Amino acid sequence: MKYLKYEFENQIATITINRPEVLNALNSGLVSELDSLIDRVIESRTRALVIVGEGKNFAAGADIVEMMDLNPAQARDFGFSPVYDRIEALPIPVFAVIRGFALGGGLELALACDFRILSTDAKLGLPEIKLGIMPGAGGTQRLPKLIGLGRAREMIFFGNIVDAQTALTWGLCERVVDGDPEEEAMSMAKKIVEKSPCAVEAAKKSINYGIDRDLASGLAYEAVVWGDLFSTSDQKEGMKAFHEKRKPQFTGK
Ligand code: CO8
Questions:
Q1: Where does 76-226 show beta strands of DSSP type E?
Q2: Is 184 marked active-site?
Q3: Which ligand 1 atom lies nearest to the CA of residue 161?
Q4: 59 secondary structure, DSSP code
C-alpha cells in the first residue's frame, strides 16, 4: 500500500490515511487502495473498522491537483462514491476518528461511517463551492439526513468550516474527546465486539434500509430481520445467559 496503512488486532481493523504531506488529500490511487482494503476487512471477518488520518488531520478533501484538468466524463469516473457506499454497507460498525481537518471528500468519507469521533481541534466542512464545484461523494445526500436540510444547506452553500463543538451540537459527530479520539473509538469498538455480530449486523442493515424509505417499508423490513435473528445461536445464547445470570459468549453464528 502506497497511501494507506492497515492494522488488525483483537478483531478490529484500522485503516490509516497516509499522505500527511498534503493533509491526507484523497487521490484516485488512495481510493482504489481503500477499495482493496475493504475486501480484506470482509475476508478477515473483522468485527469493527476504525478509519483515521496520519498526523494532525483526517483528510483535507479530494486531491485538487489531480482533479484540476478533468473533463465531465473523467470527473464522473473519479468515483469515490462506490467505495464510500461499500464502507456504509459493511456489516460491522465503522468509526471515523477525526483530528484536524475533515473537508470535502474527507468529510464525505466520514459521513459514510457509522460514528464520527472528534478531537477538540477537529474542523469539518464541505468547501467545494469555493472551488466552483459541489460535494460529489455523498455530501449533498448523507449530510442533510444527518444534520437536517437547513444546516446542510448552510455548510454546502457557504462552504463554512465548523468546529468540533458545533459539530457535536448539530449531530454531525457523536463524540468530542479531550484526550485521544482514537483511544475512544477503540474503546467503543471493543465494547461492540463483545456483542453478537449477527445482532449488530442486523441492526445496521435495518437502520440503513429504513433511512431511505417510508416508515411502513422500514418497519416491515425490521420485522423480517428481527425474526431472522431467532435462527441464530447468538439469540439463544444471549437469552440463556440472561436467564442464567452470566455474561453471554457470542460466536456470530
Ligand atoms: N488537494 C491537494 N492538496 C492539498 C489539499 C487538497 N484537497 N489540501 C491541502 N493540500 C496540500 C496543499 O496544497 C499544501 O501542499 P504544498 O505544501 O505542496 O503547498 C499542503 O497540503 C499543506 O496545505 P496548506 O499549506 O494549504 O495548509 P494550511 O494549514 O495553510 O491550510 C487548508 C489548510 C485550509 C485545509 C487548506 O489546505 C485547504 O483549503 N485545502 C483544500 C480544502 C478543500 O478545498 N477541500 C475540498 C476538495 S474538493 C473535494 O473534496 C471534492 C470531493 C468529491 C470527490 C468525489 C468525486 C466523484
A1: 94-98, 101-103, 115-119, 123-125, 161-163, 175-177
A2: no
A3: 34
A4: B
Report domain extents, the chain: 4-193, 197-243
Residue 128 annotated as catalytic = yes
Per-residue model confidence as pLDDT tens digits over 174-205: 999 999 999 999 999 999 999 999 999 999 99
CATH architecture of 197-243: Orthogonal Bundle (1.10)
Does domain 4-193 fall into CATH 3.40.50.10490? no
Kindly report the protein residue whose alpha carbon is nearest to atom 16 of ligand 1. Answer: 22
Mutate to test the pocket of ligand 1, among 3, 23, 27, 68 (most ligand atoms within 8 A of CB): 23
- Segments in the chain below pLDDT 50: none
E strand spans, 18-93: 48-53
Query: Cell numbers of 2, please?
Result: 502506497
Instruction: Indicate which atom in ligand 1 lies nearest the CA of residue 64.
Output: 1
